[in-house]
Amino acid sequence: MSHSRSPLMHNHVFKTLCINACYTRTHLSDGLKLRDVFYAKALSGANITVPHKEAAFETCDEIRGIAKEIGAVNTIILEKGRLIGYNTDADGFLSAIGSFGPLKNALILGAGGTAKALATVLRQNDIEPVILNRSANRLSFFRQNGFQSYDWDTFTPDRYDLIINTTSAGLSDDSLPVNAVLLEQLLSSARCAIDVIYGKETPFLHAVKKKNLPFKDGSDMLLEQGVLANHLFMHGAVSTDIIRPIMKQSFLY
Ligand code: NDP
């Protein structure tokens, strides 16, 4: 993505640790060409972003970890000539919400690729996710995998510890992910909230702040998914405890 902070984050780690590597961006118009582009550019690793994470899942020779259940890959590593696919968004998100303390359940607003990753990792960690999306057409993954999922017409609100915005509402406009009355009701009984969008105060986060709830934007998730991806790029040779503080410095630029 053109606004991505990832090059800065990864290159700061490589430079600080004197690793001979460089992280750059490539615009991929056709996800089916991912494999050809990876080899043509002689890459040793890659992050894949919207809308090619599902295509990346299909193209890899082997999928490891939670990416198998999510069906989407955001990190590819070249290993003995084969493409190995991982999903670090899921565990990055889990690390990011650790500071909220124990959680029983969560409402995920949105049903795109990020929502799939978050629902999967939350359920694996005994935090019951409920999915609420504007339209029904993206709910099939969730229904097939046994998640409680609703569109705006079928949803009846309950009480949720954590409210998560994974929609792109507020990314480049002033819209809320759900109508203001419903959001007010959800936030009134919630314990905390997070927006996966980073680098700006979205209308969602603005509403959360007014409720005086503990909250985060997407920066910690961005950092943590990046730390895990960087650890994979270096084939596990450098620990995440060394990578994290270095990568965090790049957020000050
Ligand atoms: P997708 O395009 O796959 O999904 C977008 C979702 O947003 C859909 O469910 C869509 O609903 C919903 N949506 C879009 N606009 C609105 C609106 N105005 N009102 C209500 N719902 C809306 O995107 P991703 O899941 O891949 O990414 C979502 C966000 O997550 C992006 O902003 C991305 O930058 C961010 N992200 C952040 C990361 C981080 O590290 N912090 C990592 C990964 C992603 P519908 O189905 O009805 O169209």
CATH class of the largest domain, named: Alpha Beta
Shape category: globular
**What small molecules does the structure contain?**
NADPH dihydro-nicotinamide-adenine-dinucleotide phosphate
- Model regions low in confidence, pLDDT < 50 over at least 5 residues: none
What is the architecture of the largest domain at the second tier of CATH?
A: 3-Layer(aba) Sandwich
How many beta strands in the DSSP annotation?
10
Distance between the termini: 18 Å
State mean pLDDT (0 to 100 scale). 96
* Main β-sheet description: 6 strands, parallel
CATH topology of the largest domain: Rossmann fold
H/E element sequence: HHEHEHEEHEHEHEEHEHEHH
Beta-strand fraction estimate:
15-25%
Fold and architecture overview:
With 253 residues, this protein is of the alpha/beta class. The protein has helices at 6-16, 34-40, 53-59, 67-70, 88-96, 113-124, 140-144, 180-188, 203-210, 219-233, 240-249, and strands at 45-47, 62-63, 75-79, 82-86, 105-109, 128-133, 148-151, 162-165, 192-195, 215-216. The chain is globular. The relative contact order is 0.15. It is 38% helix and 16% strand. The mean pLDDT is 96. The chain starts with 5 loop residues before the first helix and ends with a helix. The strands form two sheets. A six-stranded parallel β-sheet has the order 7-6-5-8-9-10, with helices on both faces. The chain has a four-stranded mixed β-sheet with strand order 1-3-4-2, sandwiched between helices. Helix 1 crosses helix 10 (219-233). The site of NADPH dihydro-nicotinamide-adenine-dinucleotide phosphate has 26 residues, from helix 6 and helix 10.
